User: Fold this.
Amino acid sequence: MEKVIIVKNLVKKFESFVANDNLTFDVFRGEIFGFLGANGAGKTTAMKILCGLSQPTSGELSVAGFDVYKQQDKIKANIGYMSQKFSLYEDLTVFENIQFYAGIYGLSNKEIDERALKLIEKLGMQAMRKKLVASLPLGWRQKLSFSIAIIHKPQIVFLDEPTGGVDPITRRQFWDLIYEAANDGITIFVTTHYMDEAEYCNRVSIMVDGRIEALDSPLNLKKQFNAENMNDVFIQLARKSKNKE
Amino acid sequence: MRTIFFILRKEFKQIFRNPMMVKLIVALPIVQLIVLANAATMDLKNINLAIVDNDLSTISRQLVSKFEGSPFFTITYRDFSEKNAQESVALNQSDAILIIPTNFQKDLLKENTAKLQFSVNAINGMSAGIINYYMQSIIIDFNKKIIPEWKAPTSDMKKIKNISITYAHWFNKELIFNIFMVPGILAVLVTIMGMFLPGLNLVREKEIGTIEQINVTPIKKYQFILGKLLPFILIAFFELSLGLLVGVPLFNVPVIGSYFVLYSVAGIYLLAILGIGLLLSTFANTQQQLMFLSYFVLIIFILMSGIFTPTESMPKWGQMINYINPIYYFMKSLRMILLKGSGFSDILPQIYALSIYAVLSISLAVSRYKKTI
Assistant:
């Protein structure tokens, strides 16, 4: 299988605090890769480095076939990103947001119109096309954010707790969108706190105190830790943490 | 190029979708011009004068009536008690006291000279100076008339030729303060627009978090900064035009220089001041921080710029500060162009200074704006 993210010995330090302690892992093309860990375990830090939002202290990293140190611009053109914070413009309409992000990724006007139409149809948002994003309920916003994050058909999309604060039905719909994107060949790199979502991933890594303590498919992890579900696996690992709150 | 087009379209939509913004853009220049140009005037009228006439002679009454006849003075108080007069100044009922001593007339006729006491409330040193000047001109005028009237004209006196001094005030013949103020207010207006708006806009994206989304896109730093600069340059040009459109006819400001020179200099200045605004915004994470920071810089720059007071009379160190004050250069050029009709060659030093400022501030802002965190 083709590796689309290669991380070797990634270290990120903030002065004396080590946020990422020697991470090594690969992500394969087309898979849904779950990136788990308690709050403060260092997930978001690692994800921001992979997206080019932050510089690693040391380590070898390649994303979408490009070097994280030297080819950040090329990486950025080939990835999508959805942050914890809502990142659409609330004072623009649904269509204007699509148009803006598609435009800055260099899509032609024809492509923009086509993809916007398809996206709005797929989400069933025809009636909201000209509404300001500020007026949309949270669930709709999250689905729209995700769809816009992959409007330019990136190789990889990074999702940072995309379903925080969203109701179970919308979460289910959101994961349908994720599966659909994965079927289209987009690699999904997702962090989450919901252990049922971890079960949906092809492979899962669990971080504790800046290190990866486990990395395998949910099925294998459950066997390895002799657990009934991912929740138990997570709790067994998270207990090891030295900086308990 | 296409990327910039998409950024610009987004910025314009956001600006004009904000109802507050549109109102502000239209109201700000008009209100500032009308209120400030009229109110912030250095012309002193209605000086409240307390008179203590201890002499009550014919000449002393003539002197008092001189003050009564002056358009500048209003007699608010007459008494024989100096103490009461002083109290009226303390209570802010009078701005100045004129004390005519007993024997004023006698001394004047016998000794050819008499003393008057004039006290001015000098809390505001500038207006105290002006009051003093008005008072002196009344006394001098009074002297001229009193001598031939009361003293027998001697042969010597006839020989004296009257030397009269006439003043020619260049570029503002009637010394109308408004004409001096209007260009100053226009400069401040353009400055406020340029310094606050783009910076606030950028910091707002930081606060909301959309900047993170922008930072993972392939947008180049200069494209992003340009997207923040251009809309506000256009808005500031609109403000300047609106200000001229309202201010020039309203206050009869003589526009002697050319509009082409005016707008060219304004363009360079805008690049400089927007660059500073954006540079400051890279130091702030919230709009609150930025407001505080910009306000601090702006107040110093505006007050030092010579909008109210001549910069030449500032202490040396104050004038040194003005070397790095872009508003000072713009204020000076604006007044020179509008009131003196200066062309490019007359304001070369200002143009050079502003150009250097523009290049420095924008390149610093671009380099300090990081796409990483």
In short: The first strand of chain A starts at residue 3 and ends at 14.
